[in-house]
Amino acid sequence: MSYKTPLYYKVKEYCEDYLERNLPARMFYHNVQHTKDVVSAAEEIGLGEKLEPAQMEILLIAAWFHDTGYCVKYLGHEDESMRLASEFLVEEGFPPASVGSVLSCINATRYKHEPESNLEACMIDADRLGMGKVNFTESGERLRAEWEEWLGKQHSEKDWLDVQASYLNETHFFTHYADKHYTVLKEKNVAKIKKLREILEEKNGFTQRLGKKTLKRSKKVIKYVLQSAALGMVISFTLNFSFWNIDEHLVVISVLAGVFIGIVLRIYEKQYTQTLEAHSTFAVSLAARTLAMGGLFLMSIVVSTVMYAVLLSKEEYNRLYTKKIEFIFSTPENIFRFIILTLLISFLLNFIRLTSRILGPRVLTNYVLGRYFRPHAEERLFMFIDLNSSTTYAEMLGPHKYHQLLVNFFNDISPAITRTKGEIYQYVGDEVVITWDIKDGIKKNNCIRCYFEMEDILSRLRNRYEAEFGIRPEFKAGIHGGRVITAIVGKLKSDIVFHGDVVNTSERILNQCHPLHKKILVSEFVVRRLKLYPYYEAEFVSTIKLKGKERDMSLYTILEVEPEPKQAAETTGIQSTPQQ
Fold first, then answer.
1. Is residue 74 helix, strand or coil?
2. Is 326 exposed, middle or buried (0-12, 13-18, 19+ CB in 10 A)?
3. How far is Cα 430 from Cα 419, in angstroms, rounded to an integer?
């Protein structure tokens, strides 16, 4: 028995004619050719699935009718297609049960419909077989133009590639035949979309990345210039010895000299101080910084003198600047006074800087402003980091070398914390507690990016760890957030602390990493607030009852889909700086 019955040919003739006469213009994708392609695909899949002739007839009739509804309306066209098919088939005397099967197949072509029979699965796969064809991206461009025409949806080239990638990743074939013969081709289209996206980012994103880096660096330059200008004002004060008798020429030149000193200090800070301070006590670091800045203060006099000599006439130079220099060095008392004032200013600036680094970048500011002298409620994120197998390492390495391992580990992961605007709340044994204001932690997935950047750093340093300690350090992380009370506590020793259930829960989430065999666990509270796509995705792990909690808590792990572009502060060449 042939499945291409007289009724089949009547349906074919009717649908071709109906679509040709009634399909609106500018249907770039859902046109007559698309219907013919779906019919051919349905025939191929049906034969591959070894359907009975009666089932093949139903499938092909449904394929011919499935898009006729576009002649009536765009959204909800499936309902119109079912109506047209029902009217035609009933009039032709097609058995009611078979009519019902045809309508079920048409209805199955709705987006994300799950098939309830193999016949419906064949119809769905026939309608989406294009994702396993070599012309997927080309036909996708026609659909993009059609959506813009009929739905008003405008997609940039990048957005459209994201739409196609999402469709391919979320969609699969239901029949064994289509899965066997077209899934490999579908995966090739996934790779092709990814490649096109990379090319587009390389082509169009270079300027944007360059612009962002330039803007970021410009902000840093402006910041250093302003700081250096302020330093120049201080230099001007030391040269004038009074705020009430300031020479305007000297102020301008001193500010320029201050900018020069600021640049030199920045280079000194970047290249030498971190390594020096890693091997030095607080007192030694403070002394070295004070002398270095004091020397630069003295150098500023030379710079200012040269600038004055270049910018001013000889008469003005002799009249204004030489007089000042002669005054400073006219007597031992004035020289001593100048040196002491210079070193005092340098000492105060560096004491504040080093104290800020010890307490944390923002803690000193909060202390000075008195932000937490009264208990203050705020929302924060907490990430507990724990070095794996620390007990084993301690026994294997001994106390001194184990201590050095922890110091290296803490130092190496610090750049990732800084780049993602995190603050180190506490070091507890082999654990690090990192915290963010909730806006900073959620923005750009900073809390998640911090974890993967730390992993990346340790991965690149694994050979050095193996050579020095004979191990490859790994860690696990637990992240949670919520409202805490922040305040300064302690009389003999004051500290800023966070009180609330959030901190305890974060640690308990960390403790679930080992039994659940996950490297990172994140609470549902955090996952719901993150915008993970396209770099990350959340995978549900389990719903568990944590100790001390009345309600069950859903935990997720985070997977890195593709590496997120790094910040301007590159991580290449990171060195571990062991501290004493």
1. coil
2. exposed
3. 22
**pLDDT for res 347:** 86
CB proximity list for 555: less than 8 A, separation 6 or greater: 509, 512, 516, 521, 522, 523, 524, 540, 541, 542, 543, 544
d(CA 377, CA 383): 19
> Computed over its alpha carbons, how large is the radius of gyration of the chain?
35
Cβ atoms of 500 and 536 closer than 8 Å: no
Instruction: Tell me the three state secondary structure of residue 540.
Output: strand
Res 578 pLDDT > 50: no
The rounded mean pLDDT for the chain is: 82
Query: Bridge-partner residues for 560, per DSSP?
Result: 536
> In three state form, how does the secondary structure of 484-528 look?
EEEEEECCCCCEEEEECHHHHHHHHHHHCHHHHCCCEEEEHHHHC
What's the CA gap between 358 and 193, in Å, rounded?
Answer: 48
Euclidean distance between CA atoms 284 and 267, whole angstroms: 20
Neighbouring-strand partners of residue 379: 483
SS (H, E, C) 261-288: HHHHHHHHHHHHHHHHHHCCCHHHHHHH
12 by DSSP, 3-state: which?
Answer: helix
Pairing type for strands 475-489 and 423-428 reads unpaired
- pTM, two decimals, is 0.51
Q: CATH for 376-560?
A: 3.30.70.1230
C-beta of residue 541 within 8 angstroms of C-beta of residue 516: yes
CA distance 167 to 173: 12
pLDDT of residue 572: 35
Pairing type for strands 475-489 and 495-499 reads antiparallel
Architecture of domain 6-203: Orthogonal Bundle (1.10)
Distance CA 522, CA 558 (A): 8
pLDDT in tens, 381-421: 999 999 999 999 999 999 999 999 999 999 999 999 989 99
Domain spans, the chain: 6-203, 221-359, 376-560
Mean of pLDDT values over 49-58: 94
Cβ-contact 85, 65 below 8 angstroms:
yes
Q: What kind and span of H or E run contains 126?
A: helix 118-127
CB 115 within 8 A of CB 121: yes
Q: Which residue has the tokens 């765009």?
A: 74
Contact predicate 524/554, CB 8 Å: yes
